[in-house]
Write a structure and sequence with these properties.
5 helices, mainly alpha
Length: about 100
């Protein structure tokens, strides 16, 4: 659910003119759909998209201070932490196809 929310915020930022990598938005959206349908490829795609989105958010926040707020960076950190938490990874190993 947090991945979908993160994609929605990224799309809003894209529509308002802030620089967002469209490939990251697509990767997170497809990854979230894959996670919802219990697919390993979706989990990996969402994880990769979340890490890149976190890197872009932190870089944007630290150097330019525009387009990304502290809450946006925190959402990215929480998403990466939840995706790579040991219990999430174990659940993915057992139940995902």
């Amino acid at each position: 659910m947090l991945s979908y929310l993160n994609v929605a915020f990224a799309l809003l930022a894209l529509l308002t003119g802030f620089s967002v990598l469209i490939l990251v938005v697509v990767a997170e959206g497809l990854g979230a759909y894959g996670i919802a349908n219990e697919r390993r490829a979706g989990y990996r795609l969402c994880g990769a998209g979340a890490v890149v989105a976190l890197a872009v958010s932190v870089f944007d926040f630290l150097w330019w201070h525009h387009g990304i707020s502290v809450i946006g960076v925190l959402f990215a950190v929480v998403l990466v932490a939840l995706l790579f938490h040991p219990q999430s990874r174990e659940y993915q190993k057992i139940w995902f196809r």
